[in-house]
Amino acid sequence: MSIQVRNVQKQFGDFVALNDVSLDFAEGELTALLGPSGCGKTTLLRIIAGLERADSGQVVLSGQDASATHVRQRNVGFVFQHYALFKHMTVFENVAFGLRVKPRAERPSEAKIQEKVKSLLQLVQLDWLGDRYPSQLSGGQRQRIALARALAVEPRVLLLDEPFGALDAKVRKELRRWLRRLHDELHVTSVFVTHDQEEALEVADQVVLMNKGTVEQFGTPEAVYNHPATPFVFGFLGNVNLFHGRLEVGDSGGLLHTGDSVLPVIGSGHETAGDAVAYVRPHDLDLERYAPGTDGIAVTLRRALTLGPVAQLELEREDNQDVIEVALPLERFRHQGFREGELLAVRPRQLRVFNRGQAVQEQGAST
Ligand SMILES: Nc1ncnc2c1ncn2[C@@H]1O[C@H](COP(=O)(O)OP(=O)(O)O)[C@@H](O)[C@H]1O
Ligand SMILES: [Mg+2]
After folding, report:
1. What is the DSSP letter of 193?
2. Which PANTHER family does the record cross-reference, listed alphabetically (predicted)?
């Protein structure tokens, strides 16, 4: 089932929780709703489910306006952060629950229920736990059972609100891979809420970046990571260096005057000359030994962290003492033989620039 959200507006008192949100969730895709706490993810999910009403705007399910459709008729499965398994029921009965409470006319026979629950427990790879009670399971197992229970009624949409949020990092990582494989088997249109960037980028077909009740960007993980549409997205998806300066716009591109340096930039074409902030990821910076006349920003290497395959370098600008982070493949770092305290030159390979008003506004929003 496809989901369209059209111009949805939602306020709690004076507080605008969702401001003119429009999104298209394609049939069969797994989409992550990603954003900081309080940005409106849960509210949007509840409106899609029909648990909450929008003040204005529409939710369209499979091409039909769902505004008048009750939650129960929307055929939506839910999994929440805090597992809501029934404590007094076995795992088997928890999964069977949605089938047993169906109206008599739609309820499957007992034999069918047994068969269905068994196959769901196999699907979530916990068929050996059917007789246990929720208190006898680990957190990760409980969330897999919660998912099996949500799937029992064959929902056309699956909504997951930080389903792994309460679990520790290692289990969470296992479960998100598992969820991805499960989705590849079932292809139920799914919306997955998370505030964890890595989780969203690793699991989803599409990512929606939300901030303060609005959609900042909607795209594939590759697109949002490599081509952030806004300063907020840039800052939210990974480490980033900021270069403050003044933008000069010419026919063949822009130049950023920052401190004592002038750097060529790529922009969206909408930037205007004047105060600007450039964004660049640590792995998009080149580093070489400084020599008079070298292009780039003169820096001193303050600290080198060489734990993994990538050297994390902390550099201090000579002109304004700002810190710059650079990530260099360890091989290359070793080969160059850079030492702490040495004077180097940093040159961005890619520099995305935003006008200052926009950048300040959005950064403020992200804190
Ligand atoms: N029922 C409610 N009454 C008042 N404020 C609410 C209610 N639900 C959510 N909010 C507010 O709306 C904002 C968005 O909440 P929510 O959608 O839960 O954010 P998220 O899931 O992204 O953390 C928050 O500031 C929250 O305090
Ligand atoms: Mg939430």
Report:
1. E
2. SPERMIDINE/PUTRESCINE IMPORT ATP-BINDING PROTEIN POTA, SPERMIDINE_PUTRESCINE IMPORT ATP-BINDING PROTEIN POTA
Q: Is 211 in the pocket of ligand 1 (CB under 6 A)?
A: no
Report the separation in Å between the CA atom of 37 and the middle of ligand 2, taken as the mean of its atom positions.
7
Residue nearest ligand 1's atom 6 by CA: 12
Q: What range does the domain containing 257 cover?
A: 239-366
| Domain stop point among 203, 234, 265 | 234
Please tell me the predicted confidence (pLDDT) of residue 198: 92
What percentage of the chain has pLDDT greater than the value 70?
95
Give pLDDT tens digits for 82-101. Answer: 767 899 999 999 999 999 99
Four-point Cα dihedral 242, 248, 254, 255, nearest 10: -60
Q: Say whether both 139 and 263 belong to one domain.
A: no
* CB of 261 sitting under 6 A from ligand 1: no
Side-chain-facing half-sphere of 155: CA atoms under 13 Å: 25
Q: Is the CB of 41 under 6 A from ligand 1?
A: yes
Per-residue model confidence (pLDDT) at position 364: 42
For residue 365, pLDDT beyond 50 = no
Q: Is the CB of 40 under 6 A from ligand 1?
A: yes
AA identity, residue 147: L
Q: What is the domain-level CATH number for residue 23?
A: 3.40.50.300
Q: How many domains does the chain have?
A: 2
The rounded mean pLDDT for the chain is 90
Supply the DSSP symbol for 339: -
Which among 214, 175, 227, 223 has a CA at the least distance from the CA of 196? 175
Q: What is the dihedral of CA 264, 267, 270, 275, to 10 degrees?
A: -50
- Rounded distance from Cα 218 to ligand 1 centre (Å): 21
Q: What is the number of the ligand 1 atom nearest to the C-alpha of 162?
A: 21
Taking the C-alpha atoms of residue 332 and residue 338, their distance in angstroms, rounded to an integer, is 10
149-175 pLDDT tens trace? 999 988 999 999 998 887 888 888 988
194 lines ligand 1 (CB under 6 A): no
Q: What is the mean pLDDT of residues 250-269?
A: 80
